[in-house]
Structures are given as structure tokens and as C-alpha cells.
Amino acid sequence: EIVFRTEDITKVYDTGEVKVYALAGVDLQLYSGELAVLLGPSGSGKSTLLNILGGLDRPTTGDVWFRESRLTGMNDRELTRFRRDHVGFVFQFYNLVPSLSARENVALVTDIARDPMPAEEALDLVGLGHRMDHFPAEMSGGEQQRVAIARAIAKRPEILLCDEPTGALDIRTGVTVLEALNRINEQFGTTTAVITHNAAIRKMAHRVVRFLDGKIKEVEVNESRIMPH
Ligand code: ADP
Ligand code: ADP
Asked: For residue 22, how far is its CA from the centre of ligand 1 (angstroms)?
């Protein structure tokens, strides 16, 4: 089952002098329950694509489908509702509220979601059951990122979009963050797309999508992990 489908999308930034083709014709399908990693050099269009899938940005041309819904046909209000109801985001920087504990940071989201999981359960899932009452300043970077992941999954999103969640972490700490994402993908079947340069993702991901110059250069299937469906 296909969750996302992009049809020949482009994203052009017109900075006056020059036009930057951030995306230059991308056809990508994401399958229900898969964990896909987006690879490629800096500036190859990975973030732009992730932002478009998550409804944070719109393509210049082409269409994006979320199941039977055409994201490119939605107005801003509909796009906001799509993000709120279906998508969890994780970014390089954790954006936790410093004056709130881990539990309270996660609860900020569960307070407004329709069918949230308890903050405690979300924190347990990322291995932070023992850090519920700690504040961000009392936690390591990897722990803070796992709080951010708990916050993203607490509303039980169908989709998790992660833009360099390991970018600010050393390699070993990054692995613990990727393991948390992998566990969520396995346990809940959350369709997940991750931008990371951490090589540990390669064993976990169902597919590796490689970008170059705003295009998909190669899609590699991980034979040791069976694609869902
Ligand atoms: P990646 O995530 O692979 O590093 P990006 O999607 O961030 O690549 O960027 C793709 C290209 O689009 C780059 O050349 C980048 O400089 C350009 N770009 C991204 N966002 C903007 C923007 N808001 N305005 C102008 N150019 C942008
Ligand atoms: P990353 O490489 O971590 O994906 P970038 O440094 O490419 O992030 O982009 C960070 C922010 O700056 C994004 O919001 C992106 O839209 C914007 N940006 C990137 N490149 C440009 C650019 N050439 N001109 C203006 N804004 C840009």
C-alpha cells in the first residue's frame, strides 16, 4: 500500500539572479510501514522533499498524494490539518521547552491530540522511562533528541519525518536515536523517512533513496529487511 506518491515534482527557488532547482523532477513512492532513508550530498534536495511530504512546503510543479488526498490541491488550512492529524516531525535540533520536564514536554502535544498515548508510554518507548522528570539541561543530546521523538510519536502519527535527527550527535549517540526510530517503526508500523548520514541506518532501513542534484539517483532495497505489504 502506497502512503505517499510524488509525481514529477520540482522546487525552484528564484533568488532574483539565479534559479536554484532544489528538486528537478522527483517521482517517489513511500510504502505503508516502511522505513526509508534519504541519502545524498548537502544541497541535493533531501530536506526540500521531506518538507513537501510533511506539508510544510509546496512544490513549484508536480503533484503530491497522501493516499487518496492530493496535498498539492489543499489550501493552507487543510495542509495544517493534514500535518496535525498524520505527521510527526523530528529535526536536528530538539526544540524542547527548557523550563518543562521530559514528561511535560511530551504532554504539550498529547494535550491537543485526538488519541494520544500517555507521555510516560512515549518516553518508555524511546528508553527514557527513568528520565521522565528530568529537564532538558539535565539530559545529554541523545536523550533530548529521544524526548523530541517521544513528543513526535505521542500523537500516534501514521508518518514520521526526520530531518537529520543525528546531525548534532556523535556517531554512537546517533545510533541510539536511530534505534529508537527503528523500534517505533517495527512496533507500530509507522511509515518513516529519515535523513541521516549515520551509517547504522543502513541495516535498519527497508530502502535507501539516494539524491543527487535534486533528483533521485538510485533506490536500493535492503534485502535483509522484508518490505511491509
Ligand atoms: P539537502 O537537504 O539535501 O541538504 P536542501 O533540500 O536543503 O538539500 O537544499 C536543496 C537546494 O535548495 C540547495 O541548493 C539549497 O541551497 C536550496 N534551498 C533550500 N532552501 C532554499 C530557500 N529557502 N531559498 C533558496 N534556496 C534554497
Ligand atoms: P540542512 O542542510 O540541515 O537541510 P540547510 O542549511 O540546507 O539545512 O537549510 C536550513 C534552512 O535555510 C532551511 O529552512 C532552508 O529552507 C534555508 N535555506 C537553505 N539554503 C538556502 C538558500 N540558498 N537561500 C535561502 N535559504 C536557504
From this structure: 6
